[in-house]
# Entry
Amino acid sequence: MKPISARKSLVFGTTAVLCLLSIFLINPFLSEVQAQCFTTVDEPAVNYIVLVIDKSGSMGGQAMTDAKIGAKTFISEMASQDYAMVVEFNDRVRVTQGFTNDRDRLHSAIDGLDVSGGTALYDAMAKSISILSRQSSSKIIVFLTDGRDGSSLYTAQNINSMSVSEGIFVYGIGLGDVDTQVLHDMTNSTNGNCEITKRSSELADIYSRVLSGYYKRFGRKKTDSGGITVKSIPSGETVKLDGQNMGRTPVKLDNIDPGEHQVAVEFNRGVGRCKIPVEI
# Structure
């Protein structure tokens, strides 16, 4: 559904300011409705998911083949509006594919993984958390590892603290000889979970269970709040929500509590205001 913009003439003294103010609310139950300075549209919950994949030397052979099948199964079963990123690691960390919802690009990134080197899981997690911290939607990390971290600068305790503080759900898959307690601690502290297996042939089923389990427990929680997108002509104008600075146009504000909110756009020659009812 394309956004529908509403023009509103705002008059301050003798100066007329014509701004294009388009404000869209996340409302899972209403069809599109226009009302004065805003338009209400349906918008599904969006999740940002990072697949962190171990490509150390011990992942060679069938283990990597099955890991690729599992990760691509996960991508294929994702909801169409969700975005994923692929982060690979051995004793170094690399973002193989940035956030996209293009399944072909994600599959290609996974197919290109090759094995070598040691294991720096915690550094890969820290990199993923840093990138996810810039997102305002629901954030998830799913990691796969088959060994014990021997190369990271970060510690497991660092990762636990960082994940919780950023509100990231962490899910883990351990293959073979892993530190089970450490992996469970990394996931349980975020309300995620970790599955351990000795057989790489089970990875596809585990990846599928992780995704379906997340969707069932948390994937729709974003409907507990609303979102507002504010645009203006010209862009780059200060936006305030209930008196608080929220950035400059265009800006998307997520996790807004239900109820009526005051949105203000500050132009050089006046302030445009709009009362917005956020419903869920």
The mean pLDDT is 83. The CA atoms of residues 91 and 118 lie 5 Å apart. The longest strand covers residues 15-26. Helices lie at 62-77, 103-111, 121-132, 156-165, 180-188, 203-217.
